[in-house]
Specification:
Layout: H1 3-19, E1 35-41, E2 53-58, E3 61-63, E4 67-69, E5 72-75, E6 81-89, E7 92-104, E8 109-110, E9 112-118
Organism: Gaopeijia maritima
InterPro entries: CarboxyPept-like_regulatory (IPR008969)
Protein name: Carboxypeptidase-like regulatory domain-containing protein
Length: 121
């Protein structure tokens, strides 16, 4: 076999064995929230830190997440769906968001960020 034949064979093998394909994604073991919610007072934009109740619903699924601190809440971890989010607090009007869509990504859900601006009663 001559040098030209070997070079042509190697070039052909490179095309067949991966130069034209993409590698699968490298997914992490991280658990990603579908919803990242920030609860603030509408008048001041200050985080509401106490007595907040959050409910997240999608069909039969229901979750009441705990705060992550500084007015934040994470919910719907690795769970695509269409959610209704309700925020209640004794000093504020109830806040609700319907049809909040969380999409599935290649490895994890795509987090949807939302801010609940609470209005004083």
């Amino acid at each position: 076999m001559n040098t030209r034949t070997v070079a042509a064979s190697l070039a052909g093998m490179a095309v067949l064995l991966g130069c034209e394909t993409t590698a699968p994604p490298l997914c992490t073991l991280q658990v990603v929230p579908g919803i990242a919610l920030l609860v603030v007072e509408a008048a001041t934009a200050a985080p509401v830190l106490d007595s907040v109740t959050v409910a997240v619903r999608d069909g039969d699924f229901e979750e009441f997440p705990e705060t992550t601190g500084s007015g934040g809440f994470h919910a719907a971890h690795e769970r695509p769906g269409t959610y209704e989010v309700t925020v209640t607090h004794p000093r504020f009007e109830p806040w609700e968001r319907d049809s909040l869509r969380v999409e599935a990504g290649v490895c994890h859900v795509t987090t949807v960020g939302v801010t609940a601006e609470l209005v004083a009663r």
